[in-house]
């Protein structure tokens, strides 16, 4: 059984451009329209903080605090989620006692929880935003982050592991900087690195394999199918060999290449260098060689398939955030997208400057007209 969580009420305080804003929502489709700079993307970004990580702009917690505001901020949502009705809240707060830097706080039904990972029991999130448009042309690091975000929606602990792996690699690199590093310390650093590396690689391999299968099953339609290949030996190995074997192999690689890595000042092998290779299936070409529109359609396919996968793997249909997606589609694809979103059953939040782009769903959606510091339900 799949549940489809729904935000019923969203409120923002001192978040980005918003002093305060409240949106009451009743439907599965939510549309935010209004002029450029009104604060539409900021609202989607606020929702994206109801999950682990840095949100859809990958901003730091300080950066989203309102300029000229108190430096603290809050996002709260009343959710009909996987655990029934709940209030999720997060933000930067003054620490108890009032001294020291602001700290991120997460609450469920007003009770503090350890981190935003706890929100995953109530809802999951996926998004497509314009900054992802250059995904196939940009550096591998961008696609790796995209990939890890895909995995995170299924495995909420994945983000913590990726960060821990980065820290372990930094620790190893620092040890290698010394002219005669302590072999025990090095051994320990490499042990930890290998353990985390295999966990990260295995989660990626599993998610991509299932995502590829989902894309294949969806087949051709208004949104093209994509081929997915993980370019990293460890992800390949994690699919068909026991984790412990892969871990041992990576430890050997690390041990044997200490000299090389010391000279380079970084670790030259491992899942921190993996790339996600995407192909445009209808033409059998690399996604980067597809046209601008084809690349955009491919991204939509990936996000739709991913949302479907999250629903089947976790039993929770993820809330979908789509920023500036609809306006770029021709009318046929636009209505195909609305159909696909309807079939997903999830709550979908769409933002765009052009109200006409949403004409096809205006009667079934909660439409909000957004102006600076002002939210007005259109009906
Ligand atoms: N930390 C902040 N404090 C105050 N204002 C901010 C902060 N960060 C961003 N802004 C402002 O928020 C405004 C609205 O941004 P947002 O991206 O949400 O607009 P939008 O409605 O999505 O516009 P567009 O249609 O152009 O995408 C921008 O003018 C930006 O300068
Ligand atoms: Mg915007």
UniProtKB/TrEMBL annotation:
Binding site for ATP: 34-41
Annotated Pfam families: SMC_N
Keywords, ordered alphabetically: ATP-binding, Cytoplasm, DNA damage, DNA repair, DNA replication, DNA-binding, Nucleotide-binding, SOS response
Subcellular location: Cytoplasm
Domain RecF/RecN/SMC N-terminal: from-to ranges: 7-80
Family matches, as Gene3D superfamilies: P-loop containing nucleotide triphosphate hydrolases, RecF/RecN/SMC, N-terminal domain
Coarse class of the protein's main subcellular location: cytoplasm
Purpose: The RecF protein is involved in DNA metabolism; it is required for DNA replication and normal SOS inducibility. RecF binds preferentially to single-stranded, linear DNA. It also seems to bind ATP.
UniProt-listed HAMAP family: RecF
Family: Belongs to the RecF family.
Entry-linked NCBIfam families: recf (TIGR00611)
Protein known as: DNA replication and repair protein RecF
